[in-house]
Specification:
With 303 residues, this protein is an alpha+beta fold. The protein has two domains: 5-129; 137-302, Alpha-D-Glucose-1,6-Bisphosphate, Chain A, domain 4. Helices cover 49% and strands 22% of the residues. The chain has helices at 5-27, 29-36, 42-66, 73-96, 103-129, 160-167, 269-302, and strands at 137-144, 147-156, 182-187, 194-198, 204-213, 217-222, 233-244, 255-265. It has an eight-stranded antiparallel β-sheet, with helices on one face.
């Protein structure tokens, strides 16, 4: 995205500050408790430790957002809301529970809240400056019921017939998918078709077409149970579709194709959480590269 330097810089500083505090909280919970609280209790040490864990996870989230090549305003605003939440809680603690804290603890509480406030303000100014690229791509990634739902849509100056033919050229799918080194049709056509995809190291897996509507859409279930399947997914489904944008008033042939991915990651809570944090950046890059590569091939066919 354009004009995102201030937002990225502040996010990176926020991530660095958060992970520094988090690591200190995790390593030295007793020492920090002695500085913060008037009376040291078992719960105070545990509280400091788990706040540290939360700060480390938060810092990873902020870092992933900051380094996302397709940084969006709403991503920055989400971090700003988290920062505001920290400041609000700090104010409430100061008003209602300051008697639990030493004078040093009060200074630290106020100081950290001030720093976080400055981060929030700078990030807000940076977010306001972000301008979307002059691109026809629409991206959305969210977490719903422990699943990652990712979608990309792109407009192209090509009729639906050309778009459909390129999208269903499964033997050449690897040419536009940056995470593949080869793809081939094993059996069938349309509904029930089976294709095999190969990763960059030769690992491979099967994908079965379980929905098919000629000229409109198709979907694949990926066989994640393959012994050498390289990704930590228990389930993965992809849907590819195209629709015409041409109208009598427009005259020119235009289409929009979409890619929809639904992923259920493997592992426990912490593993899934870390995967959720990393997935936004990874899926965004892969899907945008795929959409751009497809669009280029489609419009070259138009000539």
């Amino acid at each position: 995205m354009k004009n995102s330097k201030l937002a990225r810089t502040t996010l990176l500083l926020n991530a660095a500050f958060s992970i520094l505090c988090g690591v200190l909280f995790i390593i030295f919970p007793e020492e920090i408790s002695e500085q913060l609280f008037v009376n040291i209790e078992t719960w105070s040490n545990e509280l400091i430790f788990w706040i540290g864990v939360g700060l480390v996870l938060f810092s990873l989230d902020v870092f992933i957002v900051a380094t996302n090549a397709y940084l969006q305003k709403k991503q920055v605003m989400r971090i700003i809301l988290a920062d505001i939440g920290w400041v609000v809680v700090s104010i409430l603690v100061y008003i209602f529970d300051r008697h639990y804290f030493t004078s040093t603890g009060i200074y630290l509480l106020d100081g950290v809240a001030l720093i976080v406030t400055l981060f929030a303000i700078s990030q807000y100014i940076g977010a306001k400056r972000i301008k979307p690229l002059q691109s026809k791509i629409k991206i959305n990634i969210e977490i719903v019921d422990e699943k990652i739902i990712a979608s990309v849509s792109q407009k192209t100056q090509a009729p639906t017939a050309i778009v459909w033919n390129i999208m269903t050229d499964h033997a050449k799918y690897w040419e536009v998918a940056s995470n593949l080194s080869k793809s081939e049709i094993i059996s069938g056509q349309g509904l029930g078709m089976v294709r095999r995809c190969y990763g960059p190291k030769g690992e491979n897996w099967l994908e079965t077409c379980n929905e098919y509507s000629e000229g409109q859409s198709y979907s694949f279930d990926i066989h994640t149970e393959a012994a050498d399947y390289p990704y930590p997914f228990s389930k993965l489904k992809g849907v590819w579709s195209v629709k015409s944008l041409t109208s009598q008033t427009q005259g020119a042939n235009q289409s929009e194709f979409s890619i929809f991915i639904e992923v259920t990651p493997k592992g426990g809570y912490i593993t899934k959480h870390l995967f959720y944090l990393a997935s936004k950046r990874k899926f965004t890059g892969v899907l945008v590269e795929l959409a751009n590569a497809w669009c280029k091939k489609m419009e070259l066919k138009v000539g």
